[in-house]
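Entry type: protein chain
Record version: 2
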Amino acid sequence: MHIGVFGGTFDPPHIAHSILVNEVLQKNIFDQVWYLPVKIHQSIFAKDSLAIDHRLKMLSFIQTDQTRVELFEVDSNQESHTHSTLRALQKKHPNHTFSFLMGADQLPKLHLWNCEQDRQCFPEAADEFKYYIYPRKGYSLDCPYSNFKIIKQVTPMGVSSSEVRAKLADNVSVADLLQPQVLQYIVEKNLYGAI
């Protein structure tokens, strides 16, 4: 099977994540999409995130029969390095083909991505795995590597988790931005300052 690995913090997972995944699956770009939550960001991208158990619970609410949550980076308890993760998944699941699904907002940051603690990923990583780029509002789709594929005719992601968190903190409705079960969980657990 062709697996699209969808990495992110998912803090929280929002409706645009689900819409994108549904659209790429409907287009048969991938046979399955595996959500890959980051537990520990590469140090240069370090940021405060909600505890991983809450993020995993929220991700569980948006799964379908063609998706799953991949716990490799959670279980490894080490800094997230996408290329190393893809290699590990390929070794663990040799009958699958893995590609990485990422937003256009990451393209300007690729020169900062490390494959390991101190080694740059690109351009070598782009030769080993395919990267599928989805549009995000306000970001260019100029791709520096030939193995990067622009996903066309999908809804540009115009929602961000940081926007959702800010609205929750300000007690602004996010009912149109979250799956109902995710929102219910956030309210029940009083996450992000939600009341």
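Comment: The radius of gyration is 16 Å.
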